[in-house]
Amino acid sequence: MDEHTDFRKIEGKWQERWEKAGIFRVTEDPKKKKFYVLEMYPYPSAAGLHMGHIRNYAMGDAYARFRRMQGFNVLYPMGYDAFGLPAENAAIKKGVHPKKYTEDAIAGIRKNQKSLGLSYDWSREIATCYPEYYKWNQWFFLQMLKKGMAYKKESPVNWCPKCVTVLANEQVEGGKCWRCGSEVVEKLIEQWFFRITKYADELLEDIDKKLQGWPEKIKTMQRNWIGKSEGVNIKFKVKESGDNIETFTTRHDTMYGMTFIVIAPEHPKVLEWTKGTKYEKSVLDFIAKVKKLSQIERTTAEKKEKRGVFLGKHAIHPLTGQEIPIYAADFVIMGFGTGIVQAVPAHDQRDFDFAKEHKLPIIVSIQPEGEKLDGKTMQKAYEGYGTLVNSGKFTGLQSDEAMEAIADKLEKTGAGKRSVAYKIRDWGISRQRYWGTPIPVVYCGKCGMVPVPEGDLPVTLPENVRFTGQGNPLANHKPFVETKCPKCHGPAKRETDTMDTFVDSSWYFLRYCNVKAKDMFDPKAVKYWMPVDQYIGGAEHAVMHLLYARFFVKALRDLGMLDFGEPFTRLFNQGIVYKDGHKMSKSFGNAVTQEEIAGKYGIDTARLFLLFVASPDSQLEWSDEGITGVYRFVTRFLGISAEGRRNGTREGRMQTGDLIMQSKLHSAIRKVTQSLEEFRFNVAIGTLMELLNSMQKYVSLPQKPHKEVVSDCIEILAVMLSPFAPHVCEEAWEALGKKPFVSLHAWPKADEKKIRKDMELGEQMLERTIGDVETVLKLAKKEKPSGIYVYVSPEWKYAFFSELSKMPGKTKDFKEIMAKITKNAALKMHGQEISRMLTKMLNAGQVLEATDQETEFRVLSESKELLEKKFGCKVEIVLAESAKSEKAAKAIPGKPGIEVE
Ligand SMILES: [Zn+2]
Ligand SMILES: [Zn+2]
After folding, report:
1. Cα 393 to Cα 387: distance, rounded to the nearest angstrom
2. pLDDT at 886 over 50
3. What are the tens digits of pLDDT across the range 625-638?
4. H helices of 822-895, where?
5. 802 vs 285: CA distance, rounded Å
6. How far is the CA of 196 from the centre of ligand 2 (A)?
7. Rounded to two decimals, what is the model's pTM?
8. Which residues are close to ligand 2, an ion, with C-beta < 5 A?
9. Residues 6+ apart with CB under 8 A from 81
């Protein structure tokens, strides 16, 4: 084969054969160990695939192929996250029906994926936009409703008054409607929620208990999202009204420094307390002002001005009995904790700023060690821990002791209770749009909200709706909305909200186990295949998708349908592909498409390049130059597998050169296997490239290569390269006269007995020696030498090297090393010389790796003929001990002394 290799033809040929033979189709086989490899399923966009997507698939496919060749029964499916906003936006803007848009996009991606040669079991393909799939979203919703795990409450949405429609966050661009540019406002409407907070503790605890195979970064993000904090709820009596209010704090050690209380302006008590008082007007003005601000504007830490207004009320401090003024403040938000916060200005920066603004007292209650803070002079809050001061009988305690003592006291007097708070909120699943799963409830004038009976599922999406961009198309579609009440058969209206598409992706991995399951999933198949052994996807889904899927699995377990609580055993996040400094994407105009690269270099080259050029979890800068190097590797591989057949070979006893090549092969098997297990594809490919280099050298040596070694090398290289470059490897495999398919061939095992590090080092020494002889000849200006002497280093130097290699870590201290080495009596004799050599080595910062005198002598002696041929004169290999030459004394392990005549 040569540079005119028709990659397209090879790719097409093998893709067709794989499909025809169905070699990637799997069934549950109790005799085989299963392995479930899964990539996060893609959203089918009309833009098609670029190198960023392909990197993800190339990783998953290489890994799935590797596990399959190792003998696992590998489930490796593909499907499409088919509901969603872009399809609906396309309907509004271009008049294409979302279903058509989606189906076209899926067809495009599927075609791309198939031409990548990915080893999916295509018989398991799913798309979430069809009733046979989304029926089960509805069924799950009904189960959650029964258990009180789904509920409805008022919640804010983005609202475009001109389009009369709810907007998704992605449809709000700089506070304006994506479609008409009107100012977007916040509106409260009733929406559906899943009670994920009920699982907050388990979701948190299982991160440490069960997710050892996840990246630390992702686990931290999940922990932060759940945001558990332990503290106390404190009750305060309001002096003027007699109300009880409650705050939550994790810093009750600072309680004696509390000088005011702040309350969210939207808290109902704010209007109740001020109605008809002299404070009413200023409070109403303040609320109107706050309404114009977003939550981010209200809570941002950089904002210096702390807006607030006094409510004319006071709370009684439960420990001191002091009266503490209550303010409404914009930085307190309803929905976080109780909406009421005790303010400790000396120990919280926001409270400090507010106190300065409103001239409220600042009282230090915590002193850091070795300092004496004063509320009158401090320039900023001290937020750390320390010793309690001004704190009644708690004065003198350390923060941690004081937390316990104060919590005990509050609990004893009934003024407070230890409590745990979470940042995580319930999962809002309502979307006011068309292209999603209809929520299966109806509203009856008589019976109220009535769930659609399970037997009536699915509630299907009507297709002939109009996409005007005004309101939710479902709500405007009378035949859908108007229905009968399942209870009283009177007229009723359907819920027109559809579900968040994260619902679809929270259980699709269960469906893959048997896509024809009569129920939500097939318990037998799920028992065999789940959990997913290796999940692969982008870090942008680090929080929501993964958290929701974990929640679903736990909820299904509690419905008695699963016997495990975590869906993904191991997780890998691939790095992002960049080009010209931007993330590769169609919208930046820097997308390198599959067609472009496949046409020029073949798809195997693209796959190899994407996995070789950077470690899989780091970002990759696409370079057109880089890919040509990988392209040369692929053509060289095809060349050598052809050459292996053409050139003659030798049989019989193996020589050192053969054993060295064999050793390199088995070292490579060990390294490639280990790298693949650890998801270090770049290291694996680098090792294969080195192996090919060594093979090329080996087959071009003057003596013919050994038949057994050369065929082992070529075959095993084809096997190990096939997870990355499956098409060309199948082609080479066939050219070797092997039965198809290399894709199903057993993964090779390294034979440790054949790994001969000493010989590999010997070979390096020989190459170094040849180089040294050439240098000496050049320096001596001798083109035709009459004789060459090669002096192998004296025995004691190998002993010295061996001692050096045993030194712990990276010891660099001269004295320390000398002390250790001269403990050896045989080496002590050579103390002076060792001292000289060591000084030189430490200065050069490098020590040669060497074997032993016997091996070096043997390797050189066996190569005597080769050296004589190369330099055209007699060559003598001499042990330094039996030579008097100065050059012999200079020889060191791995670097013989050279003398020319
Ligand atoms: Zn609008
Ligand atoms: Zn009814």
Report:
1. 13
2. yes
3. 889 999 999 999 98
4. 825-828, 831-844, 853-862, 864-871, 886-890
5. 84
6. 30
7. 0.83
8. 444, 446-447, 485, 487-488
9. 41, 42, 43, 44, 128, 501, 504, 505, 508
